[in-house]
């Protein structure tokens, strides 16, 4: 394909969820010709609630939303830097449907709909000499054609492919086995005995839902700090499962329990089924590599991945990664050499492993490191950093799902300015 000097550089955005909408909006504002492909019938990605279940073992269910879900972060940190939740929503911890409505309003406000192709699934992305060949399947016409782009944003999310641990004897267990990805309602566990594995945000929240219907819930985890379940009368905490039996499990402390259901709240795998092998990115034990600053494909720097880091402020990090990469895509900044990007990656991984945790599954985990990361992106690309008030507010509400699950969603936050906020009407220093 020959490009003339008057041609706009073209951007392919894969997915129209929180990350994809942000990539589309910022690309258009940067003067690029951008299109977002969404395989579903509406925008919103994982925030779309659906009771859909797999039709067979090969079928894939996209959404992980369940009935009664409320966010575990306040809406005050869930908006985009240039588009906040409306003031008429008084609660801070909101429903999944309110998040979905917000994403729709974001798309409407920035006039994104004309640039979104619904029911269009990207099935293959392949690098060429100086651009990308993208095969798009139009589900409405059942046709598949190649389109060519200068840049690709991979925004397909990572809450679709469950990550199930290998535990001895699981095949022997005769009860019901499921991942939280397919959990929708608590009533299927009425009067049952349930084992829930994992005490992250979803594990704790689902435990709190299920215990209202179930006869007994066992919460298995290996957290160093004990979560607060004092308000959950029928929940018993257990260590890791050593092995499953026909009707239950033996735990690492030697205790045994019997139960009817086991639910794995054990996270998800990063998967990119549409990317050809010559894209030059691989996933090894949930470590997507080689990427520069967790987003740029080092082997083909005109491709960026948005939203891989976890334990972060999702919407803000999506927006920041997009603005960071656009500085390079538009030529305002020049990429370091491939050798320098590899050296940067190796240095960061060395620092992570140096902290005593040689676990590739945590290669994209941020936590407190996220603010160092934001500073790096802002400094390297000369972009606006996340406002200090967002940092402060995040520190105030961090880990509340473990210690204050029964009360923390009643807190109400109000952002006063770039530095200060109120919590339940009181200033927090």
- Average predicted confidence as pLDDT: 93
**Percent of residues in helices:** 10-25%
Task: Please summarize the sheet with the most strands.
Answer: 5 strands, parallel
Tertiary shape: globular
Tell me the domain tally: 3
Quote the beta fraction: 15-25%
Cα distance, first to last residue?
57 Å
Provide the CATH top-level class of the largest domain: Alpha Beta
Strand order of the biggest β-sheet: 3-2-1-7-22
Please compute the radius of gyration using only Cα atoms.
Answer: 22 Å
Looking at the overall shape, the CATH architecture of the largest domain is 3-Layer(bba) Sandwich
Low-confidence stretches: 1-6
Number of helices: 8
EC number: 1.-.-.-
Family: Belongs to the FMO family.
GO molecular function: flavin adenine dinucleotide binding; monooxygenase activity; N,N-dimethylaniline monooxygenase activity; NADP binding
Cofactor: FAD
Structural features, described:
With 429 residues, the chain is α/β, with parallel strands linked by helices. The chain has eight helices and 25 strands. It has three domains: 10-161 and 268-386, FAD/NAD(P)-binding domain (3-Layer(bba) Sandwich), CATH 3.50.50.60; 164-264, FAD/NAD(P)-binding domain; 391-427, no CATH class. The protein is globular and about 65 Å long. The model is unreliable at 1-6 (pLDDT under 50).
